[in-house]
Amino acid sequence: MLRLLCIKLPQEVRHRASPLSRGNLFSTSSRKPNSGLSNSKDPRALTVSFLQNSCGLSVESAISASKKLNIGNAENPNSVLDLLRTHGLTQTHIRNLISSRPILLLADLGSTLKPNIELFESLGFSGPSLSKMLSKEPRMLESDAYTTVKFFREHGFSDEQISTLTTKRPTLYTFNAQKIFKPKLEFLKSLGLSDSEIAKLLSAEPYILERSLENHLIPCVQELRQILDTNENVLKAMKACYWLIEYDVEKVLRPNISMLMKHGVPRAMVLKIFLIQPKALLLRSHRFSEVVSEVMKLGFDPNNILFVLAIRSMAVMSKTLWEQKLEAYRSFGLTKDEIYSAFKRQPMCMISSEMKIKKLLGFFVSKLKMTPSMISKNPNLLLLSLEKRIIPRCSVLQLLMLKGLIGENTSIVNMFRMSEQKFVDKVVSKYQNEVPDIIRAHQGKIEFEGFLFDLKM
């Protein structure tokens, strides 16, 4: 086919070297291009010539694209290319865009392309971000973008949320918002979600808008209601995991819930897993079975909330990441038994990032002289913020120690565990008159250098 097409093309088109090799492509500068058309009167040849010379397409791509449009006059196509360059698209971006959507060259410049690009720029898209978005869905340039944006604004979406929607799912601009999106927003509102909650949910998971209302969303919520008993619980689960209603509840959730029940997990505990971390129940059945078996093997009681937290912790990370965190603990001297002892006391100690685990352990070991055994017995400390709680409180205790106001019998663990208000009332406010710098220490403005003597755990 390619050979037959080339035979029909004029000699100058058939034998012309690729524009890329001859350096004839236009740069991203504002230099106005020539018409890009050859002298041939053959419409097909004229189109191929323009696509090669002005858009940078290869001969093969230009021939393929020419089947979708006919350029008789280069005025509009050149204006389209000028517009794209003006708004920061490089020649590479333009080549890729026209290759995927050649008909854009004939689009209405004044009433469609220009207003749409300006609208997208008002949402924060320009240059690279604009071209990246258009590469995902070039049809959005020809859409009624203004009506789509207006629809979301009228339903409580901020421009930032609309920008997020646009980034994640530019195909939304190809839908009729009133016909496709409005019934879904009304359905979500009927469940008890406010406009702001719906905007937050959909900007996080815009794929929901493309799901069928009758065939997916409604059946999904009905299934959730059967599992969770009340609309209130359904809402809690949806807020805890926005993309819950994207899943096939019957095929994914039902088998995992049945598996828990077979292991003797009471229904009340299953509901807690659902409400605390529904994402854990959305794992593939094989992986979920591994997690449940491992938690049972470690000796967690299915009737205890720690069982729920252990499921949550193990389910939200891959085996590789789990091993990396175990290695982080081992690198500071904790044995396998000490690590799992800490995990059994506080399963959430494995949720922290590997970096946070290393930073906390490094401070505990080097600055506070804690032993691996001490850390294993107090895993709740690993849930605290080093910068916002631990170091400022150490600075406070350091000042009080220097003034002789606290002794070795002060429990550092208790000091760390206190709520912020309680620590202020019992420590900062209590000694404020005697030690004025205690305020600055509590604000993190006095460096912690170490304690004069070890405090008890």
TrEMBL record:
Coiled coil (UniProt feature): none
Keywords in alphabetical order: Transcription, Transcription regulation, Transcription termination, Transit peptide
GO biological process, one term: DNA-templated transcription termination
Gene3D superfamilies: Transcription termination factor 3, mitochondrial (1.25.70.10)
Residue segments, region Disordered: 20-41
Organism listed in the record: Morella rubra
Transmembrane domains' residue ranges: none
Pfam families per record: mTERF
SMART domains in alphabetical order: Mterf (SM00733)
MF (Gene Ontology): nucleic acid binding
Family indicated by similarity: Belongs to the mTERF family.
Residue stretches of biased makeup (Polar residues): 24-40
Name of the protein this chain belongs to: mTERF domain-containing protein 1, mitochondrial
Domain of life per record: Eukaryota
